[in-house]
Design a protein that fits this description.
two-stranded parallel sheet; alpha/beta; 9 helices; 41% helix; TIM Barrel; globular
Length: 294
């Protein structure tokens, strides 16, 4: 029996999945401050027992939210509790509520805006690195398949990410991550090239699977995922969505039904790539601790 267990352990270590991240996004909101440290610590231990190995904070400041020292220290306590429970922690930087509008600017205006984003991200990284050394950093700006198609925009994107990566190295050598999503505005081949371009800056790209948003059919979504995040795709991993969007002018979502949730949680990324789930708020284990209702 002992020999069998030893062999099983060796097979697990040799598996291509052994080095893959099995992570959950947490999108901090001010209402989450009502949770006690005991509740949070219990939730983190539960996640670790369920096989998750990493918590990704989507941001550590969102507009003015979490800007003060007290709010930052509370988030750092949450991050430390996750690490104490056996989880690695990837720390998100500055989230701009106006990003999806401001990215539509052109020329010098967009270039200036991207520089401001980098300054804000570096500021957050320095604040956090002084008190908590993360296992990685996450840029909360999400790259879509609509606003970066023309050559000028693509060049600005590459310059912004290259300079951000280089300057982040002066703060911390940890890996840097960003996510991207598709909505049929590029061909699957074209989207793969966009992801490849980002990945070549040295920033790891996680592609969102679009399950919860449902802007494309399952067959269409799978084509994009195969090209961008499949075995031969350039992405580092896939973000699996654990929600269904409620139609409306503002974003509102509900957790997936039980069977659909189980199927989504059983998803395996191609060829040992990272698999990340969005988000902790919709996970059954968080029920009664994190509020998902808007």
């Amino acid at each position: 029996m002992l020999k069998f267990r030893h062999l099983l352990m060796l097979l697990m270590l040799a598996s291509p999945l052994a080095g893959a991240m099995n992570a959950l996004f947490w999108q901090p909101q001010l209402r989450d401050n009502s949770e006690t440290q005991t509740q949070w610590a219990s939730l983190m231990e539960n996640l670790h027992q369920q096989g998750f190995d990493t918590l990704v904070l989507q941001w550590t400041q969102y507009g003015d939210a979490f800007a003060g020292e007290q709010a930052r220290l509370l988030l750092q306590q949450r991050a430390k509790a996750a690490r104490a429970a056996g989880l690695k922690v990837v720390v998100g930087l500055h989230g701009d509520p106006e990003f999806f509008d401001r990215q539509k600017q052109t020329g010098a205006a967009r270039s200036h805006y991207l520089q401001r984003l980098r300054v804000a991200d570096l500021h957050q990284a320095k604040l956090w690195n002084a008190e908590f050394h993360p296992d990685g950093w996450y840029l909360s700006a999400e790259i879509d398949d609509l606003n970066w198609r023309n050559p000028e925009a693509r060049a600005q994107l590459v310059q912004w990410l290259n300079e951000t990566r280089q300057q982040m190295k002066t703060v911390s050598p940890q890996p840097l991550y960003i996510s991207s999503f598709f909505a049929g505005n590029m061909s699957p081949d074209g989207y793969r090239e966009l992801v490849k371009t980002i990945q070549q800056t040295g920033i790891n790209v996680w592609v969102q699977d679009g399950h919860g948003v449902s802007s494309l059919t399952p067959v269409e979504r799978q084509r994009y995922l195969n090209e961008s995040a499949g075995c031969a795709g350039p992405a580092s991993g896939t973000v699996y969505e654990l929600f269904n969007v409620v139609p409306g002018k503002t974003f509102n979502a509900t957790p997936l039904p039980a069977k659909e949730m189980a199927a989504q949680l059983a998803q395996k990324s191609a060829c040992g790539k990272d698999r990340i789930f969005f988000s902790l708020r919709y996970l059954p284990a968080a029920s009664g601790i994190l509020e998902w209702r808007q």
